[in-house]
Write a structure and sequence with these properties.
The protein is mainly alpha-helical and 523 residues long. Helices cover 57% and strands 11% of the residues. The chain has 17 helices and ten strands. The strands form four sheets. A three-stranded mixed β-sheet has the order 1-2-3. Strands 4-5-6 form a three-stranded mixed β-sheet. A hairpin with a 4-residue loop joins strand 4 and strand 5. Helix 2 packs across helix 5, helix 5 runs antiparallel to helix 6 and helix 11 crosses helix 12. The longest helix has 43 residues. The chain starts with 19 loop residues before the first helix and ends with a strand.
Length: 523
């Protein structure tokens, strides 16, 4: 018989007392935790150190290369060595114990590590010839409910591992949480000045950070980590910590609001389609693009032929239901009547196979055309048959300037007029825009040089060009501009027509800078 003080039955009381679970948890769970040892391990791993800086930078470099190459295996490698989980867990435990000094120490480590990661990834993107937005990058630009749940479960697992002295499993938690790839995407967005990508990735990182920190705080409190385990804290420090805790709830609340709103919209769209097509129909695919203006809905529905609906009717109904303008594409797979169901479906399958074969042949033909123009193998061409887009990074051809690469793209596009062809030229100086001596008039040759520069910058994923002589944007245009300023303003008007932004030279973060020169003779 076990001793009296170890007999679990001592916790059994009448249901009216309601203290059984609390007493059991305190004696059976909390007392088995070495709180001092856990706090010592957290303090040893959550602060700033040269090792932390080195591992953060290396993880960031691996992550951004994996994102640019669209290689999930390389991205996973970056997650394996990312040390950002430690200061975030340290921050969560410090909130639980009201340890102001540990809060400050872990936040300093996290902020410096994040800044280093963003700066290093931005530098790699700037010098890299690959700047296209890949699927791996796009997948980390929009927080959703699953991202939130991944961060929550990872935080619970990581906190449990720390409390139970099984810190080695934190590596697996880091894989699930994926803190470093969103930071690498922030660096990519900064280097390419792609603000939607930058903002979306930053929102994902903040969502993960806040979720992990708050979940770690709650978990630590449940295991008995409280203010008694830190030094005496004044009311000011206590107030600051409570303010930090409240401030963390703001971005999480905003993110949850967006996620909930999007989830409700998707549910309403699915319910509307199911109601319109009836019980015999089935919505097999549904995607809502919340970044599109207006909102874009794409669905695939298997439906009896007698229940088919016109797209404009569906769009009008959805717009009325959601109260906003939409673009709606509903692909309806029609099933025939009971008498000719088999023949109809066989004909549909044959037509579908023929259409798929024709689409595959068209994609292969376009890939070969683009590969020939870019000087690469056909499998190096990125082809999207759904949007009719094909893109390839051209190899460096001896003596070829940007005008030559642009001409190659135009030639390839002419052979596939329904496709959007993009050939990314190697990084090189932009063509010189030449003016007649003493003139600010742009002739045909100068205009082509500006258009080629705009084309190249866009292929390099930049919407800005540095123009020498352009007056500062913050100042009012000069009343009597100088010759160099008039030339720069004439160029900026052409760039604006092409959707490009002109900035004064020199400017930081520019991929390319226009070069102006005066010819000894007139146009």
């Amino acid at each position: 018989m076990p001793p009296k003080d170890q007999d679990p039955s001592r916790f059994r009381k009448e249901p009216s007392h309601g203290l059984d679970v609390r007493l059991w948890w305190r004696h059976a769970v909390m007392q088995g935790v070495n709180h001092a040892d856990v706090m010592a391990r957290i303090a040893g791993e959550s602060g700033w150190s040269p090792r932390f800086a080195f591992m953060t930078v290396m993880s960031a470099g691996i992550a951004v290369l994996g994102l640019l190459l669209s290689s999930p295996a390389v991205v996973i490698g970056a997650m394996l060595i990312s040390p950002l989980m430690n200061p975030i867990l340290g921050f969560g435990f410090s909130l639980a114990t009201f340890d102001f000094s540990e809060t400050r120490r872990s936040l300093v480590a996290l902020v410096i590590g994040a800044v280093l990661a963003v700066a290093f990834t931005a530098l790699i993107v700037l010098v890299s010839p690959l700047k296209e937005t890949t699927a791996e990058i796009l997948s980390r630009t929009r927080p959703n409910l699953f991202d939130l749940l991944v961060a929550l479960f990872a935080a619970l697992a990581g906190t449990f591992a720390i409390i139970k002295g099984q810190g080695a499993t934190i590596v697996g938690v880091a894989i699930a949480t994926a803190l470093m790839p969103p930071l690498a995407v922030v660096g990519y967005g900064l280097a390419t000045w792609n603000l939607p990508v930058l903002g979306g990735a930053l929102a994902l990182f903040v969502t993960n950070f806040v979720t992990i920190a708050l979940a770690a705080t709650v978990m630590a409190r449940l295991y008995g980590f409280g203010s008694s385990m830190s030094g005496h804290q004044g009311w000011i420090q206590t107030g600051l910590l409570l303010g930090v805790f409240a401030a963390l709830a703001v971005p999480l609340g905003i993110s949850l609001s967006h996620i909930a709103s999007e989830a409700v919209t998707v549910t309403e769209v699915r319910a509307f389609l199911e109601d319109q097509f009836g019980a015999q129909a089935r919505v097999t695919q549904l995607a809502v693009d919340f970044d599109a203006k207006p909102l874009a809905v794409h669905a695939v529905v298997i439906v009896p032929r007698s229940k088919s609906k016109a797209s404009n009717v569906l769009r009008a109904g959805l717009e009325k239901k959601l109260g906003t303008s939409l673009t709606v594409q509903v692909d309806q797979v029609l099933l025939g009547s009971a008498t000719n169901d088999l023949e109809t479906q066989r004909a549909q399958l044959q037509a579908s196979d023929s259409a798929a074969a024709a689409a595959k042949a068209a994609s292969d033909r376009v890939a070969k055309v683009v590969a020939l123009a870019a000087g690469v193998a056909p499998d190096a061409v990125t082809v999207d048959p759904n949007t009719l887009r094909a893109q390839a990074a051209a190899v460096a051809l001896p003596g070829a300037d940007l005008e030559a690469y642009r001409a190659l793209e135009l030639r390839a596009a002419a052979s596939a007029p329904t496709w959007k062809i993009a050939i990314v030229p190697p990084l090189q100086p932009l063509p010189t825009v030449r003016f007649a001596s003493g003139s600010d008039a742009i002739d045909d040759a100068a205009r082509e040089a500006v258009l080629t520069s705009a084309w190249a910058a866009r292929r390099w994923n930049s919407l800005r060009l540095s123009v020498p002589g352009l007056p500062p944007v913050a100042k009012a245009p000069p009343t009597h501009p100088l010759l160099a300023q008039r030339r720069a303003l004439a160029i900026s008007r052409i760039l604006a027509d092409q959707g490009m932004q002109s900035v004064p030279a020199p400017a930081a973060g520019q991929i390319a800078r226009l070069s102006l020169a005066a010819s000894p003779t007139g146009p």
